[in-house]
Amino acid sequence: MDVPILTDGTVTLRALDDRDLAGVLEQCLDPVSIEWTQVPVPFGLADAVEFVDVIAPGAWADGSQWIFCVDAVLPDGSRYAGNIALRDEGHGRAEIAYGAHPAARGTGVMEAGLRLLLEWGFTQQGLQTVVWRATVGNWASRKLAWRLGFSLDGVLRHSHVSRGELVDAWVGTLLVDEPREPSGRWLSVPVLEGGGLRLRPFVDDDLPRVVEACSDERTQQWLGRMPAPYTASSAQAWMAANTEKQATGRSVTWAITDPADDVALGSIEVFDIAPEDAEIGYWSHPDARGRGVMTGALHLVTDWAFAELGLGRVRAFAAVGNAASRHVIEAAGFRQTGVERLGTVLRTGLADVAIYDVLAEEWSRR
């Protein structure tokens, strides 16, 4: 099959050729490409030549892959944006694959190229199903697949080869008759500022502070489901779980910091997000206690939840005996509506929990 030229007027898909050698080399030397793809390491100019002049044309010749160059004018003036492919699996199925040049990331060029590829595959090649796979943790690939309308169908354990090892892989599908748009909400973590606080996404540099806070005796007492001992691995798993919940529209988690030094003072989360309401939960580092930090953070996040999520109610809970946490909730303007007997787990066992909420109209009148 001759390689067709596909274009939307801005982005063009075409055959790879020698003008792309420098771009292919740069892409395959990029640390992100090395981490998440199977480009040879080390990778040199000879490898780029083999990919452009031998592997890609050979795949077209034997029908195993339809590999395209993504051609568009990038911010640095270059044109090679990356390469994308459909790998024919027979019976109307193909796997989609893509890799972006660093200069193309965040420009929307790869998404436009993949839309051209999918349209061509479904309409010209008779595909019924396109499969997407990525190593668990490759959030950039997953978010791009989400934008294109792919479902997330699960995790295939130890099914993906990465640098000679078997790792877990996400898998998703897009069917010919499905809309090529997101089917759910992907929540981001906006920076919120006010009252001398700055709320921002957690980053890897926060891990030691998370471990300190979650190893604290008071935190461990009131949050009985928290791992004990709480290790760096526990913190990493918690941060990964937060990202997963944001990607599936279930929660948003912030690090609470002082703008003066950006050191994490605690965590606050909106979770169990439903069309009509959501819950807010939090924990603090010992350094933050007694300073009004958590009450201020609760104000900021409640404002955001009503304004951005359009909720009618925000809920909060605290163990009946947790006077400090209940003071935070009450000082923020929440009203106690009841007590659920044995409704929470402490380190010492089940305990009664005080139930609080605030309605949108009550919050707006504050």
What does this structure look like?
The chain is an alpha+beta fold and 366 residues long. It folds into 2 domains: 6-175, Gcn5-related N-acetyltransferase (GNAT) (Aminopeptidase), CATH 3.40.630.30; 192-364, Aminopeptidase (3-Layer(aba) Sandwich), CATH 3.40.630.30. It has an 8-stranded mixed β-sheet, with helices on both faces. An 8-stranded mixed β-sheet has the order 9-10-11-12-13-14-16-15, with helices on both faces. The mean pLDDT is 97. The protein is 33% helix and 32% strand. The protein is elongated, with a radius of gyration of 25 Å. The chain has 11 helices and 16 strands. Its EC number is 2.3.-.-. GO terms for molecular function: acyltransferase activity. It comes from Nocardioides plantarum.
Rounded to an integer, what's the Rg over CA atoms? Answer: 25 Å
Note the main sheet. Answer: 8 strands, mixed
What structural category do the secondary elements indicate? alpha+beta
Shape summary = elongated
Question: What would you give as the CATH superfamily of the largest domain?
Answer: Gcn5-related N-acetyltransferase (GNAT)
Helix content: 25-40%
| CATH topology value of the largest domain | Aminopeptidase
Would you identify the regions where 5 or more consecutive residues have pLDDT less than 50?
none
Mean pLDDT comes to 97
- Total DSSP E strands: 16
Task: List the strand order in the largest sheet.
Answer: 1-2-3-4-5-6-8-7
Strand content: 25-35%
| Overall CATH architecture of the largest domain | 3-Layer(aba) Sandwich
CATH class label of the largest domain = Alpha Beta
Number of helices: 11
Task: Give the distance, in angstroms, between the N- and C-terminal Cα atoms.
Answer: 68 Å
The number of domains is 2
Pattern of helices and strands: EEHHHEEEHEHEEEEHHHEEEHEHEEH
